[in-house]
Design a protein that fits this description.
alpha/beta; single chain; 2 domains; 7 helices; about 200 residues; SGNH hydrolase-type esterase domain-containing protein; two-stranded antiparallel ribbon; SGNH_hydro_sf
Length: about 200
């Protein structure tokens, strides 16, 4: 009887989580780093408001202005910039290229924290090319971008079980909270949950 009840609860949980995700997709259930780590449109990050596409840059029209050399830049947190927008190397690059006024340059910063070459490829293919760039600049980090095992189709994995993914991610978050609290010398949420 216990086994039947357990299987019923697990199956019901799986069905409900899948239905919820179908109606209202959440990054919590995905390994797709573009969805998981991309900024929310118009959200404030480090005192700078992200644009309507969720990038730490000003707004850019899809149509390239006449006489403009357009560069679409993709990458991880280095491209996104852990510094204020005016100090980002891509913002500085655009200023440098436009300093003599001979030609107009536009650099579109499409950096997303936590992404890697498979996501760069998909970002260029699905979004950057819509901006009709003359050049695509890919920022690579030697610390992790060259040691990546690539899947054949460069697509994110789909979860086998939404319930497993939900529980796994929840316990990972609680574990991270536990570690952070232990470092600060405070009580941990996960210990409070287990008591």
């Amino acid at each position: 009887m216990f086994l039947l009840s357990f299987v019923t609860v697990v199956a019901l949980g799986e069905v409900l989580l899948r239905a919820y995700h179908k109606v209202r997709p959440v990054a919590y259930f995905t390994e797709d780093k573009l969805l998981k780590y991309r900024g929310k449109p118009h959200e404030k990050v480090m005192g700078y408001q992200l644009n309507s596409r969720g990038f730490k840059d000003r707004e850019h029209s899809l149509e390239k202005p006449a006489g403009t050399y357009r560069i679409a830049a993709v990458g991880d947190s280095f491209a996104f910039g852990s510094v204020p927008y005016p100090a980002n190397y891509l913002t500085l690059l655009e200023e440098y290229l436009n300093r003599d006024g001979m030609q107009s340059f536009e650099v579109i910063d499409m950096g997303i924290v936590g992404t890697e070459p498979p996501e760069y490829f998909r970002l260029v293919r699905d979004e950057a090319l819509l901006y009709e760039p003359d050049m695509v600049l890919v920022s690579l980090f030697t610390g992790n971008d060259f040691y990546l095992k690539l899947e054949k189709n460069m697509s994110p994995k789909k979860p086998l079980s939404f319930l497993y993914t939900f529980l796994h991610n929840t316990f990972r978050v609680l574990g991270a909270v536990d570690v952070l609290e232990a470092r600060r010398g405070g009580s941990s949420i996960s210990r409070r949950w287990c008591q």
